[in-house]
Specification:
7 strands, histidine kinase, two-component regulatory system, five-stranded mixed β-sheet, 396 residues
Length: 396
């Protein structure tokens, strides 16, 4: 059994027991060995007849009376000296055992603290902003230390991913803001220089760009609320089918403009939800389908109970589907179904991220996949009952 597989408390108990046994063994066997040397020394100092009596007694035989009396008389003064030397001997071996156990304990302590020292150095690097640092898997330690290192590496990896997403999202926001701001600045500068007339068409162009900026800001605010767990605050029993009917009815013109033929199979499914946020998520999926899958000319919307614990809303199209690189993966902020960030397709890339944020806030999940016959399928899955909050405030 390896010590690295044991808990710290178990290792401490085993090491303590081993040190006690080692100390006892050093004192006991050391005293017995030196006592044997002293015995030979004392026997060399007594007379032959007294030594003979001692040997006979050691063998269990009865010596002569004269020899026994001589042995007693000669050993009495030696015994007094031997008693003092025995106490001193025990003290010496006790100190020696303590020194040896201290050295072994120091070595073991260094061995067990070494992973923590390495972890401390890595934590300092992480604190300085180097999120690529990791503690090597070769570092050994108790089970608690191994778990701590594993959790730290996972945390460092998550921080690195967050930092990478933050850089990407910052660049993406700058990109999304730059185009409309450039257009607005160009129109205003042209109107100020009297290159463009101050007519309704120019004002309409400005309003269109401002509306796009407003949508982007609102989308970012939605994601910010989701990150702070304040996106869904009020819930009531909501029928997914009824909410979908309302969204589809309001999106008739959008679907007609995209040339999409609508097909529905909406079955009643009651969930505890924020109806406004639920309709927002549905509308985001519809807009995404109209933007990227209009070439398929088909859209199907389904709802119902998935099982005894979950309900679903599924939207299927016959467009190009998701890229193989992204299909089945978690949708990130500013994720797009195509590599291009051209505005010809419209949108900021926040649509499906908002969908995921809203569904997650309801305790559900989003599943997206490309269909074998062509097209994409986005399924929003919601719990049928409101999950209990954990002590830390998150939803179980």
């Amino acid at each position: 059994m390896k010590l690295s597989r044991l808990s710290l408390s178990t290792v401490s108990a085993l090491v303590t027991a081993a040190m006690l046994m080692l100390s006892f063994s050093i004192i006991f066997f050391g005293v017995m060995w030196v006592q044997g040397l002293y015995e030979q020394q004392y026997l060399s100092q007594i007379s032959d007849n007294a030594r003979l009596a001692y040997e006979m007694l050691d063998r269990g035989e009865l010596p002569k009376e004269a020899d026994f009396l001589a042995l007693v008389q000669q050993l009495t003064p030696l015994y007094e000296d031997a008693e003092a030397e025995l106490y001193l001997l025990v003290l010496k071996f006790g100190l020696g055992a303590a020194l040896i156990c201290s050295l072994i304990g120091y070595w073991l302590a260094r061995k067990f603290s070494s992973p923590l020292e390495k972890l401390t150095r890595v934590v300092n690097n992480l604190r300085e902003g180097d999120f690529s640092v990791r503690v090597p898997d070769t570092v050994k330690g108790t089970s608690e230390v191994a778990m701590l290192i594993e959790r730290f590496n996972a945390l460092a990896e998550e921080l690195e991913n967050m930092e990478r997403r933050l850089r990407f999202n910052t660049m993406a926001v700058a990109h999304e803001l730059r185009t409309p701001l450039t257009i607005v600045q160009g129109i205003l500068q042209g109107m100020a220089d009297k290159i463009f007339p101050r007519d309704d068409d120019r004002i309409q162009d400005l309003l269109m760009q401002v509306e796009g900026l407003t949508r982007l800001v609102n989308d970012l605010r939605t994601l910010s609320l989701a990150a702070s767990q304040k996106l869904v605050t009020e819930r009531c029993n909501t029928d997914i089918a009824q909410a979908a009917e309302q969204v589809l009815q309001a999106s008739r013109s959008l679907l007609a403009e995209a040339g999409m033929v609508l097909e529905t199979n909406l079955k009643r499914a009651i969930i505890p939800a924020d109806s406004q946020r639920l309709r927002q998520a549905m509308l985001a999926v519809l807009e995404n389908a109209c933007r990227y899958a209009s070439s398929g000319g088909y859209l199907r919307c389904e709802s119902g109970y998935l099982n005894k614990e979950e309900a679903f809303l599924r939207i299927i199209d016959r467009g190009p589907g998701f890229d193989q690189e992204f299909s089945g993966h978690t949708i990130d902020v500013f994720w797009r179904g195509e590599p291009s960030r051209a505005r010809a397709t419209g949108g900021s890339g926040l649509g499906l991220s908002i969908v995921r944020a809203i569904v997650t806030a309801h305790g559900g999940r989003v599943e997206q996949a490309s269909l074998a016959e062509g097209g994409a399928c986005v399924t929003m899955i919601f719990p049928r009952k409101l999950a209990e909050n954990k002590p830390d405030g998150t939803v179980a």
